[in-house]
Write a structure and sequence with these properties.
Two copies of one chain form a homodimer.
Chain A lengths: L6 H15 L8 H8 L3 H13 L3 E4 L5 E4 L8 H9 L23 H17 L6 H15 L2 H9 L5
Antiparallel strand pairs in A: 1-2
The structure holds a DNA duplex.
DNA sequence: TTAATATAGGATTTATATATCTGTTAATAA
DNA sequence: TTATTAACAGATATATAAATCCTATATTAA
């Protein structure tokens, strides 16, 4: 096993990127999103609940309810989702698993790995959902065109502006 | 959960780094190593067996048996251990978990992450155990001085040259 | 040759993450 | 006001990794 983010985190990122493609204030149900992204609905529900706790998304119960982003695109970064789902462990723990890995007692790759870790953190922090939106649109489109007919996709999009 | 390498891989790296500190051809039992590194013996045994399959270590059964490195320090790199234990998945799978993440259908962080991934691979590949040996010695020393008395440590080292 | 030792290999147990199920609560369209 | 919808919350089930256990086999010191 070699994981970087947990499954929860991956799916959270996917769901948030999905929402970022559409208008703010447009609510999508967990069922909706799970179908689009082809991921288990029940599991996604839990994940969206966690994201709601961190106010990365907001939820609305009942008819015409669902989830939408909790803040403007320009105020959400990938690192926010990662921290919400997996915490900051990945940026603190020794990559070799040594217990007392510090500046005083560094592991053999301490310094090099530190730089890499900083780069990772920066990469997840520097852009907001707004800056990567074009890429997100392309990706969500491509998933659609793989999973379902292009017409269904077109319909969905025509009912929700995305530019 | 946020893992980069599996526990197996972490412990494998630790064990190999441990062996790299001592003379070639010096055999350490799994029990020995597990005590030094404070890691479960049975688990470590399995790990060492896997490493033996990949000839990163060689084993000797019976009295005065144990494990030692299977090649000169200058011919073992951290990436060898990582590949042996966890494979190359980490360098291939989409970090966001998207199924069809390719150059044609890239995820929103495809390019940036690719660079990071390459850097990681390079970092694990560029040095051999020989080049990082001084650092390994320091680290193993520090574990020792934490876990056991300095005298025990001194004894162990005096009976095995490490320079 | 024998007793002691240490790896080898399979089976089993434990822990954790992932996934599902069930009933409840809140919201809203009709 | 009511039926319907969808999130919410807790319990349960499944999958996988991590850790342990047990027996067999090989090696060697005595």
């Amino acid at each position: 096993m070699t994981v970087i983010f947990s499954k929860k985190c991956e799916l959270a990122l996917q769901a948030v990127l999905y929402l970022s493609v559409f208008d703010e204030e447009t609510y999508f149900t967990a069922t909706d999103i799970s179908k689009r992204l082809k991921i288990p609905k029940e599991f996604l529900s839990k994940i969206l609940q966690s994201l709601a706790v961190h106010s990365i998304v907001v939820s609305k119960k009942g008819k015409s309810g669902g989830f939408t982003l909790g803040r403007p695109l320009s105020e959400i970064r990938l690192i926010d989702i990662v921290i919400a789902m997996d915490g900051l462990d990945i940026f603190h723990k020794c990559v070799l698993g040594f217990k007392g890995c510090t500046v005083e007692k560094p592991c053999p790759v301490h310094e090099k790995w530190g730089k890499l870790r900083d780069l990772t953190y920066r990469m997840l922090s520097e852009d907001t959902l707004l800056e990567i939106r074009e890429k997100s649109i392309d990706k969500i489109k491509s998933i659609h065109s793989i999973n379902e007919s292009a017409s269904v996709f077109a319909h969905t999009y025509s009912s929700r502006s995305y530019n």
